[in-house]
Amino acid sequence: MLISRISLRLLPSEELVGDPFPDACVQLAFSPTRPSDEAGAVAIPESVRITPADLVRLRVESGLALGEIRAEMQRAEIAWRQQLSRWYDDGRLAVEARAPDISLLQRVLDGLRNPGPVST
Question: Domain of life here (predicted)?
Fold first, then answer.
């Protein structure tokens, strides 16, 4: 995963004289990155100019997207903990029965090793 630093710069009015898009006065610049497929290569992304309103919209939309990602991660963690709890309870009951159901214990072990979709 490439993580790039972003810098913001408000362009001074002198730089915007005669510019066809003077409203786009915020410059976004990204730090150089190293693509993983080429050993010595460095990619230098172009800077982008946007309006202050676009910058606010970008901030709001990225905040919403990160909130959705956090919520999905929490739902997945809750589901995992519920699965783990069920496997633990099933395994405990089988061991306490003193005559363990081998297929049940095998399912519990398989579930712990391979946390894919759960079959109940």
Answer: Bacteria
